[in-house]
Design brief:
The complex is a heterodimer. Chain A is of the alpha/beta class. Chain A is 21% helix and 27% strand. Chain A starts with a strand and ends with a helix. The mean pLDDT of chain B is 90. Classes of the chains: A alpha/beta, B mainly alpha. The A-B interface holds A 205, 250, 254-257, 292, 318-322, 334-338, 341-343 and B 24-33, 36-38, 41, 44-45, 75-80.
Chain lengths: 431, 387
């Protein structure tokens, strides 16, 4: 571990839309910010989305400029593929912790992102950025609009053949890289660790993983973006263009059997949005949404929901109980139609599970001795939600975005602004 | 128009329902239920009725009897509202609501009544033996040529055949009492489900005859139960049911053939039936008691006090039955007599209380509910087709 402590005014943990917003707000106020991102690229979940509700703005078109702004800001230092842990509060009110930089086996400043390594790499694995729908190489640029747009070696799946090293025109591949740990000090900490997507494979009656044509809403989202894997909406089993798509809402939200009693706040609206996008992408397709209650609570949400009904999306009140697969890959959904109390079975050729948000468990283990308190649901506890919504159980540590609970993108950005403002005020008071 | 009576749910809680008020009516329970069909959708509808206090709709519904409590609904309920347990509670409630004497409700909701009535009948049976059939024979003369106890010769001056006839008469009196109450309760059930049915149809007489086979078929096979997941549970239940029914029939109707002085070889049907019944009943008691103690699986998660009374009484009956048999074939005269009295002092109250008023009544109500449901549904269907 190097002895020279790096010093910053604030450390932002998490490089999603919330982390970027907080970092930019602080940096614009002349604070030195370190943005720590555990993934190969920052950008969080939003960079992978197609459109945002209820305006149908292009998600990437909003995120990429913000990412560039963050990356180029003179007051912001970004560490991707890194973690900041074992954080402790010092007596003077500042913080210290360990910055762990994982090796990507590519020299960051030399890599040009030409993807020659990707071409020659013989090892193919599931592409996590396309949510497992296609493959990628073990030497790879994470995704086309990644930032930094440079390669990394997935050492777990690398067969150490050295082909990439030979192919790299910039000699950027370096298999000797090791994990680096440095002690970093900061005036305050912003926790923007975001959320974890619910994995519906644990709900066995829905058959995700077993039935090929049951997909998650994130997989559908990827099929609707400009950088989509198949350049069309296809169902996985036989690459047929689906014409009767079902959405199952509240998968992983408001469900005590998986220990998540809260509403994820976004699934209704992103399903409404995807329904509209599908109506555009596949004009002949039928889209049916199985819902418990459509929670269209925000500005313009109800109108957006009514617009999808007007476009022909069908809404059926009833939680899907079981899904069974037919021989041709179609799926039979069994549910109780709450409007008339009858049990019904309906066949669809593609089923999308609208997965909810779960707390990111990493937030709780950032601090030494798990000092950062979580609420009953596992999100970072907001000690004074009404007066200082970003304050946490540790003074000087602030929470931004979905680390504090499920919320949509605008709310997340607003919350990040609040976190930055509160952090700034804390820094001024301590000086 | 429905009048909402939220206080009704408190009443149901005495019959064992838990936490059903947290239900948000998603319909998951109905959708995952392997038995829920379009004419009879449950458990959500029944749970809704309970929350709203729609007493008449519950009483005229046969749905709780159509549920065999596999527990899928409770297991997958996103609100953990225990829909399976509310169906169980409603079965208890319905048993009480069919009973015009009001005793059933007392047995279900009051510990004092439940245990007191059993004790009282138990004491009466013991007293009857003490006064009228006290042990008075010469123990030495009671061993037959097989080395076993002559079970019908305890009382001096009453020879074997007459003793059996006295006991048989007692059995028949008991059976008559049970039948009187059970049949009148069944009639009440019939009025609620078929006559005042919720589909408002009249059931033609011919349908009663045509559908009658259903009654016997479902009583004998419990085929609906096997549709639930975990067929082993159905097999076990069937073993218990068949053993119990066989034993009940033999004791009440064929006592002179069953309770003989002669000890038959073990392969004799008389002994074989006894062994079969004992095996089935004992196996079921052990599996269910262990399940209830460990609270394993949804079906055993919640135990109403009457569930335990049922298991304990059945266990004691079986245990004394086994002891009686052992004492008898080993020639232990006094032990045989006293165990015989104790056996009856447990068996009689169990049958008198449980069969018409409590848990055993489901033996009659379940197949009848299927029969009645079919009557109403088919009458409604033919009405629709006629129009």
């Amino acid at each position: 571990m190097s002895q020279d402590n790096e010093k910053y005014d604030a450390i932002v943990i998490g490089g999603g839309i919330a982390g970027q917003e907080s970092a930019l707000n602080l940096a614009d106020s002349d604070q030195k910010v370190l943005l720590v991102e555990k993934d190969l690229s920052f950008g969080g979940k939003m960079i992978h989305l197609s459109k945002v509700f209820p305006t149908l703005d292009c998600s990437a078109c909003i995120t990429t400029p913000k990412m560039s702004e963050t990356a180029r800001h003179p007051n912001i230092t970004i560490c991707t593929y890194s973690e900041f842990t074992e954080i402790e509060k010092l007596p003077d009110g500042t913080f210290t912790g360990i910055l762990t930089r994982h090796p990507r086996y590519v020299i960051e400043k030399d890599c040009t992102g030409c993807q020659d390594c990707e071409e020659v790499c013989p090892s193919v694995v599931e592409d996590q950025y396309q949510y497992g729908m296609v493959g990628r190489k073990a030497a790879y640029v994470p995704f086309s609009i990644a930032n930094p747009r440079i390669a990394a070696i997935d050492i777990e799946n690398c067969i150490l053949c050295g082909a990439c090293e030979r192919a790299c025109p910039a000699d950027a591949i370096d298999f000797t890289q090791k994990t680096e740990k440095t002690r970093v000090n900061a005036g305050s900490v912003i926790v923007a660790t975001g959320f974890r997507l619910f994995d519906p494979a644990v709900i066995r009656k829905y058959g995700l993983g077993k039935y090929k044509n049951v997909v998650t809403s994130m997989q559908m989202e990827r099929q609707l973006v400009p950088t989509r894997p198949f350049n069309n909406v296809l169902r996985p089993k036989d690459a047929k263009v689906p014409d009767n798509i079902a959405y199952v809402l509240c998968v992983g939200s408001r469900d005590l059997t998986i220990g998540s009693p809260v509403c994820s706040q976004v699934c209704c609206m992103y399903s409404v949005k995807q329904g509209q996008l599908l109506m555009g992408a596949l004009p002949m397709a039928d889209v049916t949404v199985y819902y418990l209650h459509v929670r269209a609570f925000g500005k313009g949400f109800e109108e957006f929901y009514q617009q999808s009904r007007g476009m022909g999306v069908k809404y059926v009140k009833g939680k899907v109980g079981t899904i069974e697969e037919k021989e041709n890959g179609d799926l039979i959904l069994r549910y109780e139609d709450i409007r008339d109390g009858s049990v019904k079975e309906e066949t669809h050729d593609l089923v999308v599970l609208s997965v909810g948000m779960l707390p990111n468990p990493e937030a709780g283990s950032l601090f030494a001795g798990n000092a950062l308190e979580l609420d009953e649901f596992g999100y970072v506890r907001q000690v004074d939600m009404l007066k200082n919504p970003a304050s946490t159980s540790i003074e000087g540590v602030f929470v931004a975005g979905t680390a504090s609970g499920p919320m949509d993108i605008p709310d997340s950005i607003a919350s990040s602004g609040a976190a930055a403002a509160e952090a700034l005020s804390y820094l001024k008071r301590k000086r | 128009m429905v009048r909402i009576r939220p206080e009704f749910s408190d009443q149901i809680k005495k019959f064992g329902g838990v936490d059903f008020n947290v239900c948000y009516n998603c319909g998951n329970c109905t959708a995952v239920c392997p038995l829920s069909e379009n004419d009879n959708t449950f458990p959500r509808r029944l749970l809704r009725y309970t929350v709203l206090g729609m007493e008449e709709d519950i009483q005229s519904s046969s749905d709780p009897w159509l549920c065999y409590y596999c527990g899928d609904c409770s297991e997958t309920c996103p609100r953990q509202a225990n829909p399976g347990e509310i169906m169980m509670a409603l079965r208890r409630y319905l048993t009480a609501s069919y009973d015009w004497t009001g005793l059933s409700k007392k047995f279900y909701t009051s510990k004092a009544w439940g245990i007191g009535s059993l004790l009282l009948i138990s004491v009466i049976v013991a007293m009857l033996f003490a006064f009228f059939l006290p042990f008075s024979a010469d123990p030495a003369g009671m061993i037959n040529e097989d080395g076993g106890v002559m079970i019908n010769s305890f009382v001096r001056g009453i020879e074997g055949e007459r003793f059996v006839r006295i006991i048989e008469t007692g059995d028949l009196v008991m059976a008559a009492i049970i039948s009187f109450f059970l049949i009148s309760n069944i009639f009440n059930m019939y009025l609620k489900i078929v006559i005042r049915n919720r589909k408002k149809v009249r059931v033609p007489v011919s349908l009663y005859v045509r559908e009658a086979w259903n009654l016997f078929y479902h009583f004998g096979t419990q085929m609906r139960f096997s549709k639930c997941e975990g067929r082993s549970y159905w097999v076990l239940h069937w073993l218990l049911m068949s053993g119990y029914t066989l034993m009940f029939t033999v004791i009440v109707v064929f006592l002179p053939w069953f309770q003989t002085e002669k000890i038959h070889p073990f392969y004799h049907p008389q002994r074989f039936i006894g062994y079969y019944a004992t095996f089935g009943i004992l196996l079921a008691i052990i599996v269910w008691s262990v399940g209830r103690l460990r609270r394993s699986g949804e079906i055993h998660k919640y135990s109403h006090k009457t569930d335990w009374v049922f298991l304990i009484m059945l266990f004691l009956t079986t245990l004394t039955g086994i002891l009686l048999h052992l004492f008898r074939i080993n020639g232990m005269v006094h032990a045989t007599y006293y165990t015989y009295v104790v056996h009856l002092a447990i068996l009689v109250p169990m049958l008198l209380v449980e069969v018409p008023f409590s848990k055993w009544s489901h033996l009659a109500y379940r197949p009848l509910a299927i029969y009645f449901t079919n009557l109403v549904n088919k009458a409604a269907d033919s009405g629709k087709n006629g129009n």
